[in-house]
User: Fold these one by one.
Assistant:
Number 1:
Amino acid sequence: MKLLRNTWYAAAWSRDVGADLSTRELLGEPMLLYRKHDGAPVAMIDRCPHRFAPLSMGKRVGDGIECGYHGLQFDCSGACSKNPHGDGRIPPGARVRSFPAEDRHGLVWIWAGEPSRADASLIPDFSHLVSPRLKTVGDEMTQKAHYELVVDNLMDLSHVNYLHAPYQHVDDFLQAKHDVVQDGSALESRRTVAGTRAPQSFRPFLDDPDAPVDYWLNIRWHAPGCCLLETGVVPVGRPREHGLVRIGTHIVTPIGAASTQYLYASSRNYRLDDPDADDETARWQQMGFHEQDKPMIEGVQTRMGERELFSMRPVLLATDAAAIRARRLLAAMIDAEARSDQPVPVAIA
Amino acid sequence: MKLLRNTWYAAAWSRDVGADLSTRELLGEPMLLYRKHDGAPVAMIDRCPHRFAPLSMGKRVGDGIECGYHGLQFDCSGACSKNPHGDGRIPPGARVRSFPAEDRHGLVWIWAGEPSRADASLIPDFSHLVSPRLKTVGDEMTQKAHYELVVDNLMDLSHVNYLHAPYQHVDDFLQAKHDVVQDGSALESRRTVAGTRAPQSFRPFLDDPDAPVDYWLNIRWHAPGCCLLETGVVPVGRPREHGLVRIGTHIVTPIGAASTQYLYASSRNYRLDDPDADDETARWQQMGFHEQDKPMIEGVQTRMGERELFSMRPVLLATDAAAIRARRLLAAMIDAEARSDQPVPVAIA
Amino acid sequence: MKLLRNTWYAAAWSRDVGADLSTRELLGEPMLLYRKHDGAPVAMIDRCPHRFAPLSMGKRVGDGIECGYHGLQFDCSGACSKNPHGDGRIPPGARVRSFPAEDRHGLVWIWAGEPSRADASLIPDFSHLVSPRLKTVGDEMTQKAHYELVVDNLMDLSHVNYLHAPYQHVDDFLQAKHDVVQDGSALESRRTVAGTRAPQSFRPFLDDPDAPVDYWLNIRWHAPGCCLLETGVVPVGRPREHGLVRIGTHIVTPIGAASTQYLYASSRNYRLDDPDADDETARWQQMGFHEQDKPMIEGVQTRMGERELFSMRPVLLATDAAAIRARRLLAAMIDAEARSDQPVPVAIA
């Protein structure tokens, strides 16, 4: 699996990484995750360089870890700090590959490339997740599909009118104004429908559900797998800041060639303290993501097998513009990285 | 998997294909099956040419279908009939590969080769399945084995004296007169035992179960996987048309390299309206096919792994004559097809 | 999988091989095991040379077997003894590969190499298993790991201080005197700790559990996978024959590339008739082997995937001496065998 290396990937929701050792497969590698006593996240390959035991089967010792098989200790940088055997000398190669890790906006991010190039300011902006003016409900799931198929799903939101109908159906949506705008390595797809019926997912929260609204749906992709979706309705002609708005967080991280970690959330600017609105969101995420998107995306993966998308010569439509452009941008970035003189770590398969 | 292409394969029992979209893996492909409003069967690849979604996750629209992911519509020939996106123009390649399909004798048949060569008169004759003078009981199963291993099982019926004893055991069967006769691309194996004890499977239906009978067992193979088995007993010296006769239907269709769809039925010329005789047949099919043949054939597949039969240099016996000849005939037909200037579709893996 | 061929492998505990046909995967082959009427064990490939049916689905006929598919019979040497078909002539190649098999010390051993070289005196000495002066408790399990990873676990017993702590923890163990001694193709690792605290596993059986003891732990490896572990405690300065001693039997036989049959037992020289001591042993084996070793060894296999140990450049420590030497010895033996002019049977994959 060719991956973009010099970039941040979301490893987990911050709340799911604690002092205890945990492990998850990410980027084709077993990833050990935990926090130091000062709360800083630690990420390293979950494999002892001695006899390749999973370090997650060992235990915490200070801010480091002790392998549970033969007792080698490593500090949180991955360097061996104690060899309990023989003369106790630490062999030169006794080191676990670690990854720069950062907590940001409720997520733990890891840098998959050259550590010296890890720059936390490059982490995409998901600050809405921790905004006091929004209420966020989210969770995670695994999709048994290549991560680009999940991105395709997100970057072509015309599917809401089919796969997610009637709950997310938007009248006149497929003929709506649609702009695809590139912004550096980010890409944004923007659709607006003026003077339409409010979609079902907003109606319970509108004073007059039957009054016509202006509707918008923007999705912003940040390579390789971070999407931020903004959708809103506002009474016709009013400024968007007066509207009901939801910011969707959709972040995919490759697990393997046909397996993807998918972190998702929805942050709303209305009824912040209403548990019924929380429930409504959780119900929709269960239905929309788990019962509708997941079987469809995994069905596509099954139908593609191990073949690559373009090798199958897909019939492309107007609605594919953003998704295809994102794929091509990403492929160009991966190629550029491979050609660059920046050495890219080879440990990741 | 090399398959004979310009031939009819049984896709399903007719009763199992209805107006609703259904899907089954056949010939290494996901096959979408349904019926038009006029009842005619439709078969096409269950994969949208746009983003490769399973069409079976969509819905019927008239005699065609609508993809459940992004809403492309296809008519029952597989041609795209509606693009709901952008300007609605239908892209040139927007077409699903469909297969000529025919209802015949209670089965839905599909033509795996060049569509223009599909000739319904080439469908092998299983008209006994719908004969009012016979009562038919049958079902289907999946064998986790290469389809030729299932054909081998059928074409060497000496196994009834071991695997299916005592219920189907026939005295003097292994030394019985045995002829193997080729008839075009069909092959028939005929065994007769004169003046023997009626096998247990016939005894409950004979006036005098202990009276000696003439017994016969013929099996006719039609490439690549259709077998018709006739077995009967008649009082010694009487013409066969006075006997108790059962016509067995055994039709295998490759699913994948080690997976086979097996449609089976037994049609009897006695006690047509006797539910006890129906039950007797269903019990035997459960025992004989599911509990005896299936574990044995799948055991053979396990013992062979991915190896091809002849590469393992099997020790061949007199009783293998028909099965081996069928294998060689089929191999020659597949080779001839590959060499012919008739272009064979390549979409099937 | 390259295996040492001209050697004995343990196929099963003798008590688990009876008159009935049984089958287990060993050495990459399905192995049919049963006993003749005189009790002698029989081992042959569980695959009929006719149509490759599992012979274990057939039945015993005298000291031989009858294939359950088409009725070929084989004697206990694997030679075809009856062909019920046609003229009954036995085809020249109708032979099942059989293996010299011996009952010895409560185990059934099979010779994987050239049959004429099978010499029962080469079976490693596990006579303690049947000694009247010891009480033995044991069982078997499957490890989803390459057999050398299980040998590594046994040949580096420093892991008891981590993986099996506190029950098997030994004070001062990692700095204990440690000798690795080669004896022909056997290798022994010996550790002694003078004047230490008795480990928890011995304390319930000592008159004064708190009195200091001399402790020893020797493990002897006999290529390719037979280990004999002796551990004991004795009051300081007394001869070992006055001590509490346990002889561990740890015999691994490859099933496949990442699957190993592991036969284990513990034979103690104390409280021979005490069922509580039996229970104590069985509890420890369950905890130590099934709940501690197995997940760790299988975790290592998972982290290694299909890679070979040395190709991953493990960081080696003083404690690895015996295990690495055993690996190198075995590799040299396999290489020597491959280079020898002794023909090695090729039937085993």
Number 2:
Amino acid sequence: MVELSISGTKILSTVLFLYLLVCLVNFPAAEARVRHYRWKVKYEYKSPDCYKKLVITINGGTPGPTIVADEGDTIIVELENNLLTENLAIHWHGIRQIGTPWFDGTEGVTQCPILPGETFKYQFVVDRPGTYLYHAHYGMQREAGLYGLIRVSPRQPEPFSYDHDRSIILNDWYHKSTYEQAAGLSSIPFVWVNEPESLLIQGKGNFNCSMVSEPGVCNTSNPDCSRYVQTVVPGQTYRLRIASLTALSALSFQIEGHNMTVVEADGHYVEPFVVQNLFIYSGETYSVLVKADQDPSRNYWITTNVVSRPNTTPAGLAVFNYYPNHPRRSPPTSPPPAPAWDDVDSRMNQSIAIKARQGHIITPPTTSDRVIVFLNTQNKINGYVRWSVNNVSFNLPHTPYLIALKENITDAFDQTPPPDGYDFLNYDIYSVQNNTNATSSNEIYRLQFNITVDIILQNANTMNKNNSETHPWHLHGHDFWVLGYGKGKFDMYKDPAKYNLVNPIMKNTVAVHPFGWTALRFRTDNPGVWAFHCHIESHFYMGMGVVFEEGIERIGDLPSSIMGCGHTKTSNPH
Amino acid sequence: MVELSISGTKILSTVLFLYLLVCLVNFPAAEARVRHYRWKVKYEYKSPDCYKKLVITINGGTPGPTIVADEGDTIIVELENNLLTENLAIHWHGIRQIGTPWFDGTEGVTQCPILPGETFKYQFVVDRPGTYLYHAHYGMQREAGLYGLIRVSPRQPEPFSYDHDRSIILNDWYHKSTYEQAAGLSSIPFVWVNEPESLLIQGKGNFNCSMVSEPGVCNTSNPDCSRYVQTVVPGQTYRLRIASLTALSALSFQIEGHNMTVVEADGHYVEPFVVQNLFIYSGETYSVLVKADQDPSRNYWITTNVVSRPNTTPAGLAVFNYYPNHPRRSPPTSPPPAPAWDDVDSRMNQSIAIKARQGHIITPPTTSDRVIVFLNTQNKINGYVRWSVNNVSFNLPHTPYLIALKENITDAFDQTPPPDGYDFLNYDIYSVQNNTNATSSNEIYRLQFNITVDIILQNANTMNKNNSETHPWHLHGHDFWVLGYGKGKFDMYKDPAKYNLVNPIMKNTVAVHPFGWTALRFRTDNPGVWAFHCHIESHFYMGMGVVFEEGIERIGDLPSSIMGCGHTKTSNPH
């Protein structure tokens, strides 16, 4: 990012520079290019919300560098692990990895972890334009700060216009280390991670340092936590790419006094609709168009708030700065209030409003070959609190599935097929169920190649009375059609008739709302082994995920770089 | 350890049980046995000094289980790494690993790290009786609590007698995580680990919880930090095996009102001498005989204090409990005062007093084939604070030396031989030197096989005026003769004439005192690659170490289990 300075002339030159950049982006070279990145990953003390803690940085920063590319470009990231004792893996979230399933970056699924001192080379094509993400996919490292954005520009003109293209990653932030959080989640008695201490807008938040007694730990004047400023020129239109990589929180996002027109979701064009609050779930990306059409004599608040959970996390604040006002001048008004955290209907309605844009609809197959229903429940297994899918709580194996399947290593994981459903007739999704038959397993779904699969995500009551949570489910290796949402128990006889088969949006991450269901459809057309999981860091850690295999027999030789752990550890020293 | 209960009958039965155990130990079976351990390593919340933090446990505990064996036994430890994202390696400190140099457990030197989910099988012979240690040898994990004791009983009668055999590990303890410490040490500006918050006696200390404002973090009634009690029967004699695994601190150890007769050091019998304070450095072990010959109507303090550094760390306290007094009854007196921290002479004098026991002297060769002088200095390299040996600051490579050398992988580390000395004539060890020529390197010393090598450890001023620190140097794969200690700069013409060649003690860890020197001799008779380094966790991390290779050509096939990292990562999936 070009850093904004308080000097007016510098801002002007920055704006000019950005304008030139946009021109370049709008007229890309016809030739696909190779974009080569060299990233060093290490622990450093940073104060993203003014509270000093160890974070994982890429080339000294969190968020890491934005990958900027054109449709069809090849991205090479040489990732050097400079952590002391800890391994790494990075997932390229939303990139389908067609032909390169081994570079999906999912530890235990597609690769062995990258050891300290190793340099791992990821190489893949960004075959579709849009807004994507990258982040650690190992243990709970994402939450330690290892994440960033991928912006892929189209080769064709876009169906909307704007003057400037900007990106903002939203995140929630914890002061405890990920080790402490993971140890608590794996303890008896269970220690929950609790609500985040703050919300970050483009890596910057603002914790109330008066709550910290230890000297030197929290400092509101630390430049790491200087409020994020989005400078705009009156009258111009901005494409804001809004992404969420929260560990836990569903968020709302507002720009005080400004409407936002949603035009992109997870890399797909959306039939435009206007919001004041944009609800966004972990793993999702949206593009909204915002026109700087309000009173230009002042600045405005950008706010983000936790929704869907009762919480004490203060709003994340940034400034929507009308040039030439001083970027550090606070808006004269109070930040707009947060939407009611428990207003499920508003969130459900936004979900339903997201349709594919006319002229850009990819029509789904009208029927499916296999339907899998995933009951989302919280369970106790051997005294540990876990999340489960059809009463199976997922564990990652230590030999990645991709390698085990390709090399016929049959003892690397449980070969039993996991269940395609649950006891639809008798299970009461509205009350606490004991789920005593829940088990932990690393078994996976083997899907026939080139078929159409429907997934019904069925939410239910947690282990707490009258409680059901929001889960953003993310599918690797595919985009899926979102066929429908509903409240209560999915009715397999009546609900499919209501599916939107006309203009469903395609996404890679979708929410299942409290006590509700979400229906998806996808084609098993990408040979590989793909995780499908709740994108809440602690939920996946606690078992809320599954793995799909498709077309393993069509995959070419695996690169040796992904091997070296579990059953793929070898005796050959060269 | 058998846990002491407050019930008198239980204590009596415990004492009887221990007595029987001693009888068994005194008459071991003639046959060498295999001792098989299965250890699970993970992070858990513990409160060793009443302050709750994440520690690395073995089978749920820190310190880990004591390995109890007879001379000649084979130890098998199957180590399961249950950490989430972190690798492991365990060093068997004092075990020479004759014939098994690949199981020394030194990450980067003798093996690749053990990945999460892996089970690594260590297998080695404990060929000599004595008191040894084990601990993590990867990153700074030792300090996170991964350590324990090895007690090897002799097949021959010992030259002293006692009624009971007990062990106590001393340690210093920090509340910050090892990640935080390492990040600070690798930062510009440098952030020092500071003095430890407390001292632990057999894993138990007592932090002043009134200094902690956060609720639930520090709790003096937590059983994890119940004061350690050593129960004794009046009139009986106890062999106490005292070991130190401090991260930083040199310690004194006292039993209020009792003399201690030193009889063993690092597995070698010592010509007995009596102390009130036992000075002990990280990596050392001692056996002392203590007779319960004081007023039996009361209990006595066991204390340990930091010496050799100005410090604010409170004494570590335990109770020397005369049966049948209540083990939790505090002694009526104040704990004995700590020796003056800066009394170098007393510590030097104890070092000099440690000689091999008559009848158990292993005579050193009278001459040496190679003399290497190691100047110990603190330096700045590229702005980072480092420790150096002859102005070379050591970095571990990511392909272990043992594998690189055996397999002729020549690009795994710098093949330049490091220097055998420094500028003896001109270097002023008494003042701050700028050491601007210092470099970082992973170069190693190649030693001819079956020769005699002398090492002179030469201490010097640090980067702070009038300051020189104590460094406990530990040699892997060997015991060395301690030929002498001196003050000031070693005189290569005069000092060797004063060497003790008559009855020098053999040890594996030895201190070099402030502004002093220590002279060692060893035979290069153990084919392998062996680290020699300051046992202070942060000092080794900051470069204070070297590596010796000897007889690499005599080493048989390496086990494949030690491979899998750096240049030994392979493409063969089976």
